[in-house]
Amino acid sequence: MQSQDVAQRHAPASAGHHGPVDLEQAEAALVEHYPRLVRIAYLVLPPGLGRSRRVLTAHSMAQRSLPRGRQQQPVIPAQAADREGDPGYAFLRERVLCTALEATRPRKGLPRLSQLPPLLPQVWGLRLFPRSGGADELALDQRLSALSGPARAAYVLRGLEELSEAEIRELLTAAGVDDPGGALASANSVPAQPALLSSPEFDACLLQARPTDLMRRRQHSKAALAAAAALAVCGALVALPGDGWGPDGAAAPVYATNPAAEAALDPGRLIRVSPGAWESAARTDFSTWPARGPLTGDTALLRRALAVWARPGGTVHVSATPGTDIGGPAGPPQLLYAGQLDNARVVVLYDGLRITRYAEPADGTQGAALDFARADGAAGAEASALVLGRSDGNVQYLTAPWVKKAASRNLMKPDAAATPLTVTDGITAPLASPALRAGSCTSWTVLQLTGASGTELTTDLGELMPAHLTAGGPGSAGEVSDAAGRAAWAPFACSLAAERSVGVRSVNAWTFAEQPLPDGSGAAQWVCTRAETWRGDGTGSLAQFHAPGGRAAAVVARGTDARSCGPRDPHVLAGVLWKSGAGHWYLLAAGDKDTATIQAGGGVTAAGQGRFLVARAKQGARAQLKGTLVDGRAISGLQ
Asked: Residues near 220 by Cβ (< 8 Å), separated by ≥ 6?
């Protein structure tokens, strides 16, 4: 794309009423908050629909929440980065809530559209449902099932959206609820558990698949299969040469075993690295990690872990980061850990490309979990830790043998001292996990590791592999190991929430400009944060604007699979509508040090030499940015 819409953040809208919402603004809010809107619909929908239909219906309601017309005078969100200040999100939330509550009402005559199975999306031959949580999530789900639809909505708005009772009453009234007070009273009978509402148990975007009723499908298709088989046999007989059936070649008989498959399932053939091998190894990656944990000699546990990896049954909850193969190992994998963590026995394996974590209940009950993450090419800081388990809002890591010290830090407080963590047999003491936090972002806890090569920071983004944090220009980024690096990250820590559960390998923060503000109140920071993924595609770049005195930065532009801010194209151009203390609106734009000119068109027409552009503007104006580099090449705003 050759242009960038410069955004303006609108003042926070009330819970139930809002001004005109532009279609493009609503589309942007839908893309940014789609998982949250689907979660709200899933929680409010009647449990009697079944988990699979609730998933599809929740997605359908979120996708049908866009306004049908295009407003003539759009109101563009800017300056505020939170969803509560986005009227587009408020509008979509109300639409989703209305349709979800409509589906909970008793039928009178013909069913409403929301009470029918969704036309789109459709999935054939599979049942989709969120990952199952623990006992706490199951208990909460049962309590919510006993509530009425309006009461469930009130509980979700209170716990997940953190709305006041007055705002909840306003939203329920707008959604056509006859007794909002009664719904609130019923919701208050269930203890508030916001962290559980944000858990994977209720995430209708993080799904696992299972087949539908196979016996029924077989019965319905038996005649068709028999006819197809007869046709295939007849065709093959006609085509055969006179000597009859030919050999099957090198293919083994169906369901037969082979030596490689047998070796991969034999716990006696697991690769076990000696504890001191890493000290003389030429590389620092997972292949040099020793096997740790008190259950490394439990042959029965290891055999179960390998068998479930190769053939996960119906009671196994399987999850994987995007782009990760979930097939069995090609040969004997390497054992990294086997032990008990909280109420589960855990086995961690490595096959050279993937980290696989197997967990089963320690009390011997049925069920297991199998998690996969890509780790190909991981070395150094990327192979210094992996997530061993999460519970009660905390996370524990298994660290590399070369790690000497571990500590936790609040990334939003760069001057605060780190809190040392006890490390026992490579396992850290629990620390707060930002991936499990619900509500507004007031802190961001990261893991600080110190080894022979120095200090590095990683953060939990909801996957087995934590993301490595760096700071600096593209191609020359370094570790966030000093106060200056931590100060560069502090205003932008909360933007990491946008990178949860998408397979992020590392995130770099690059301060590409510091622009003097036109009212003389100081200089604003322009930073581009770029998230690289393990699979290669899906990289995300965010241009962020941080005015002096502000706690958090505002995301003003974003790009997916964009080369900007990366080693292949170390350039960026972004802009924002900014309101001065005197109430005047300005278009501010900035580029990196190689920017020669900037031009703005559309709602604001201006041009300037150099890497900065300042122009008076009206509230709600839109502008498209273009520029040229010192070598004459044209650039456009980040998209």
From this structure: none
3-state helix, strand, coil in the chain (%, to 5): 30, 30, 40
Cα–Cα distance for residue pair 161/153, rounded to 1 Å? 11
- State how far the Cα of 348 lies from the Cα of 398, in Å rounded to an integer: 10
Say whether the peptide bond before residue 121 is cis (omega within 30 degrees of 0): yes
Q: CA 470 → CA 86, 250, 382, 544, 558, distances in Å? A: 30, 50, 11, 16, 19
DSSP state of 7: B
Backbone angles phi, psi at 498, to 5 degrees: -70, -10
SS (H, E, C) 168-190: HHHHHHHCCCCCHHHHHHHHHCC
Helix axes 87-104, 149-159, angle to 10 degrees: 150
Give residues with Cβ within 8 angstroms of 561, minimum separation 6.
537, 538, 539
Residues 453-492 as b or e (16 or more Cβ within 10 Å = b): eebbbbbbbbbbbbbbbbbbbbeebebbbeeebbebbbbb
Concatenate the DSSP letters of all residues of 486-545 into one string: HHHHGGGGGGGGGGTTS-EEEEEEEEEEEEE-TTSS-EEEEEEEEEEESSSS--EEEEEE
| Nearest-angstrom CA–CA distance, 14 and 138 | 33
- 574 CB contacts (<8 Å, ≥6 apart)? 4, 526, 528, 543, 545, 556, 557, 589, 590, 591, 625, 637, 638
In angstroms, how far is the first alpha carbon of the chain from the final one?
Answer: 7
Q: Taking the CB of residue 201, how many other CB atoms lie within 10 A of it?
A: 18
In contact, 616 and 623? CB cutoff 8 Å: no
Which of 525, 463, 469 is closest to 493 using CA atoms? 469
DSSP letter (8 states) at residue 122: -
Q: 543 pLDDT exceeds 70?
A: yes
Picking from 251-255, 276-280, 567-571, which range would have the lowest pLDDT averaged per residue?
251-255
Nearest to 603 by CA among 587, 622, 625, 578: 622
Question: What does pLDDT average to over the chain?
Answer: 84
pLDDT computed for residue 506 by the predictor = 96
Question: What's the rounded Cα separation, in Å, for the pair 214 and 216?
Answer: 5
Flag whether pLDDT at 213 surpasses 70. Answer: no
Query: Is 413 strand, coil or helix?
Result: coil
**Reported pTM:** 0.64
Distance (Å, whole) CA 87 – CA 67: 13
Q: What string of H, E and C letters represents the secondary structure of 243-307?
A: CCCCCCCCCCCCCCCCHHHHHHCCHHHCECCCCCHHHHCCCCCHHHCCCECCCCCCHHHHHHHHH
Q: What are phi and psi of 353, to 5 degrees?
A: -125, -30
In sequence order, what DSSP letters do the residues of 319-348 get, joined into one string?
Answer: EE-TT---SPPSS--EEEEEEEETTEEEEE
